[in-house]
Amino acid sequence: MRKFIAVLVMGFFIVSCQQISFAAPKSDPTLPNKITEAIKKLGSPNKTDQKKAFKDLVEFGTNAVDQLNGVLNDKNSDKEVVAYTCDILGEINDAKAVDPLILILNHRSAKARYSAARALGNLKDKRATGHLVSVLDDEDYMVREFSVIALGKILDLTAVSPVIKKLTDSNGTVRAAAAKTLGQFADKQAVPALIKCLSNDDFAEARCNCADALGIIKDPEATQALIGALRNDYDYKTRGASAFALGEIRAQEALPFLIDALKDEYKDVQVFAGESLNKITGLSHGRNQGMWREWFKMQSPANK
Length: 304
Known about the structure:
This protein is about 70% helix and about 0% strand. It contains 18 helices and no strands.
């Protein structure tokens, strides 16, 4: 009897679940008005109201896209509201927003322009590539920076050459973003420019990102520049990135310099040097400089 009741209950549970699974979701007839009200609150002077409206619109998701696109298409929209709208559309990530966002790349407000660039990067739609390239010389450095970052997310290789040119931008954060994006592209045509930037740039983050990019690309042509950075760069992050990149390249000629780096004043550099020594030689001496030096000495033809 108990077995029969258990089977009956289980059968009822399965049927109930099936009914729930196949039930069509009920639409909320008030949703369009809620979206309209939330968009209005994006322009509120009350920051709490703004934040709640932003959160609500992201949660409304694709249901809100048409009305949000309407904000971007309206030339009379407040510039702050336009910027918030771009960010929301970037979070929702619906392809219907691509064309309206592209239009905002030429908006009078720099904040709106860089918000549109950032959103287009999140959407990763190649239709935006040429338009993002066209604003790489924008007067505002944040527009240039976020456009470069967006191109690194879209990964359309037609943008490699324009991004290479940004390694000589007047702003250090733009150069740093360009170096990172070129690492994401992993295209060897960027190697000469990355080497030059690593060797000469006065902005540490740009040099560090160049070293990272060269490690991703793995072109042996970068070996000497990376050794130079490992030995002489004052920025420990750049030295660490260079040590790591030399291991990715498997640069035999870097061995004595990596061994020297095991005594770098920063532990991170020591760790990357030890890992690269392991990658290049297959040996596991960790960060024991004495053992590495003894091993390296034994590799001399005179000791064989």
